[in-house]
Amino acid sequence: MNVLMNRFSRFTEIVAALMVAAMFGTFILQIFVRYSARSEWVAETLPFLDPALYNWTLELCLLLWVWLIFWGGAFVVRDRDHVTFDILINTFNARSRRTFTILGGVIMFIALATSIYPTWDKFDILRLKRTATLSNLFGDWIRMRDIYYIYIMFLIVVALRYALSVYLAVFKYPPREDQK
After folding, report:
1. How far apart are CA 174 and CA 180, in angstroms?
2. Which tens digit of pLDDT belongs to each residue from 45-103?
3. Could you tell me if 86 and 104 are in contact, meaning their C-beta atoms sit under 8 angstroms apart?
4. What is the pTM for the complete model shown?
5. Alpha carbons 9 and 4: distance in angstroms, whole number
6. Measuring CA to CA, which residue among 33, 61, 72, 78 is closest to residue 137?
7. What is residue 9's three-state secondary structure?
8. Domain ranges of the chain
């Protein structure tokens, strides 16, 4: 099971790295086209560098940024990587910390899980909307709903991660000193 989890973790990190690389490459292309178009000889000699052909670069960078944030939040960032302010919680004993973990996990699971359906319901209207410029690059099939599916995936995965943390706190928590 650990081998499978390690491979899946590595896969998600590679996907995130590819998104960063694609975003960076698109950004560099955008800058190159913008500043090369100022030279008249470039526009005349190389008509494929016409800035009007590259309107999609900004929208693609924004799409990749949205996907990178939610993909990374769901799959790449581990719990121990988050910044926590645990000065107050560390003043409590292990049993109280366990209780807070369970209570916080249940609250977060409920909040995330109950927001899935209303979010999905709002996404229904996005099936009609096309992207402003990405259809030039990908064709007419891509819709705004497709771009934001990653948020639904984020809600599901993070809710399941909180459910797992509650499960571990309830059933796999190290025994208290008086139970040994």
Report:
1. 10
2. 777 777 777 888 988 999 999 999 999 999 999 878 877 777 888 888 888 889 988 99
3. no
4. 0.82
5. 9
6. 61
7. helix
8. 1-77, 81-180
